Amino acid sequence: MKSFLLATLGGMLVSTLYAAGVTGQWTRSTQLLDGRTRETSLYLTADGDLLTGYMSSDGDNSPVLHGKITGNSISFEIIRDDFGKERKTEYTADVTDDELLLHRTGGNGRSFTDRLKRVSSAPPKPLPPAAAKISLPAAQDVPYNHLAAKPPMGWNSWNKFQSQVSDKLVREVADAMAANGMKDAGYVYVNIDDTWEGTRDEQGNIRTNSKFPDMKALADYIHSKGLKLGIYSSPGPRTCAGYEGSFQHEEQD
C-alpha cells in the first residue's frame, strides 16, 4: 500500500511539474517572401493533466479543445471555420523547458512539425473576443454576358509549385505551352495562383513581391506567346497562404 501511494503521488507530482512547465506563450515566427513576418502563437494554461488556451495566427484566434497533458507531451484539437464548414486539426507536441515541437497532419496526409519557442511562462490573458462577422449584401441575379461560352483551359501554378512560383518559372511554362502543342489545342490561360502579392502603396494599390519584379512585363511576355495571363486574389483580408487579399479593395484590384 505504501509503495502504491508513493507511486501514485510520484505520478501526480511529475504530471504537475510538466503541467506547470507548459503554461505560457509559445511562438513561431516565419519570414514570408513579401518581407512580412507571420507569427503563430500558442497561449496555454495547464491545470493538472488538463490543458486550455488558444492558438493565434494572423489575427485569427482559435480555442484549444480537448487539451491533455501526458508526461512531457500534450495533445489538443483546433476547429476552424472553412467557408461555413468546420475543419478540425489534431495536434500533439513534445515539450521541453524552452521549446515545443508541434506535430499535425495536413488534409493531404502529409505530416508537419513546427518548432515554437517559449516567450513567457506567465498565465496567458483570456481568449480575445471574436472579430465581427463580415456583412455582405444579398446576392443578385447577374445577366448572362456570353463570357466563358466554352470551358477555359490552361495551366495553374498551385498544384505543382505552390509558394515556389516566380516570374522565371511562369515564363518557362509559357514557352513550353507555346512550343509543345498545348496552346494550339486550346490551353491558352497561364494562371498565377497565391503568393505573388506584396504590400499596398499609399493609395492602396497592391504591389507584387520580389518574386515578380514587373508583372506588366511578364504579362507582355505571355501575350507575345499568344497566351493569356491570369492572377489570383482572395475576397478576404488575407489569401489562403496569408498574403494580401482584396477585401475592401475589390474594385481597385
Instruction: Tell me the radius of gyration.
Output: 24 Å
The number of distinct helices, counting runs of at least 4 residues, comes to 4
What structural category characterises the helix and strand content?
Answer: alpha+beta
Strand order of the largest sheet: 1-2-3-5-6-7-8-9
Largest sheet: 8 strands, antiparallel, barrel
Outline: elongated
Mean of pLDDT: 88
Contiguous runs where pLDDT drops below 50 for at least 5 residues: 2-17
Number of strands: 14
H/E series: HEEEEEEEEEEHHEEEHE
Strand percentage lies at 35-45%
Note the gap between the termini: 74 Å
The share of residues in helices is 10-25%
How would you portray this structure in words?
The protein is 19% helix and 37% strand. The chain contains four helices and 14 strands. Strands 1-2-3-5-6-7-8-9 form an eight-stranded antiparallel β-barrel. A three-stranded parallel sheet has the order 10-11-14. A two-stranded antiparallel sheet has the order 12-13. A hairpin with a 2-residue loop joins strand 5 and strand 6 (73-82). The chain starts with a helix and ends in a 22-residue tail after the last strand.
Give a short summary of the structure:
This protein has 4 helices and 14 strands. The protein has helices spanning 2-22, 158-161, 167-179, 215-224; strands spanning 24-31, 37-47, 50-57, 60-63, 65-70, 73-82, 85-95, 99-105, 111-120, 154-156, 189-192, 197-200, 206-208, 228-231. The strands form 3 sheets. An 8-stranded antiparallel β-barrel has the order 1-2-3-5-6-7-8-9.
List keywords for this structure.
37% strand, elongated, three-stranded parallel beta sheet, disordered N terminus, 253 residues
